[in-house]
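Q: I have two molecules that I believe assemble together. Could you output structure tokens for the complex as a whole instead of separate predictions?
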Amino acid sequence: GENVEQHPSTLSVQEGDSAVIKCTYSDSASNYFPWYKQELGKRPQLIIDIRSNVGEKKDQRIAVTLNKTAKHFSLHITETQPEDSAVYFCAASIGSGGSNYKLTFGKGTLLTVNP
Amino acid sequence: DSGVTQTPKHLITATGQRVTLRCSPRSGDLSVYWYQQSLDQGLQFLIQYYNGEERAKGNILERFSAQQFPDLHSELNLSSLELGDSALYFCASSPTSGSTYEQYFGPGTRLTVT
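A: Yes, here they are, computed for all two components at once.
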């Protein structure tokens, strides 16, 4: 089955700096890669996603890049703010037709943005 | 608010007992997924239902079962509970169309087994 590795497990940055989180996946059939942000005790919240037919996607201060050949994808957060502090999870899935299938998650990255 | 609802928010029970967790998907979503989140295992997929039928199974224990009803709400049944079953249980739902793959998570049920 699919295996998703995520690094680093913790990341501490100064406010205004950039943060990068990297993930690799094992199943070449995976074609959908979402990123979730989870604050303590709350639900995972979808912040951005990318499909395998796209190499990069950006939404304001966050961007995701995908390298299908190398089977890795990354989350980039620019101009970090204290409210960006949370655990970030990458995931991989196979989407087909009108539905997708199970998400396989990485272990998460605890991002701390210091004021 | 994702539009996915889960009840109860918290559940405290004893080992050996049985509990039922309930999930209502977003309006119109036919797919429901259950995930377990624990400190040592992270977020793990348990099972998926699509329009009332089981579609995929993950690392779900035999003591656990689920179903999706005609009104599309889903229930996850956990029996013969053990201390290690203490975790956050999330359900998620997914739009049903040819071009959307997003899964939206509910607020979760925190299960504590004592």
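A: One point stands out. Residues 40 and 86 of chain B are 11 Å apart (CA to CA).
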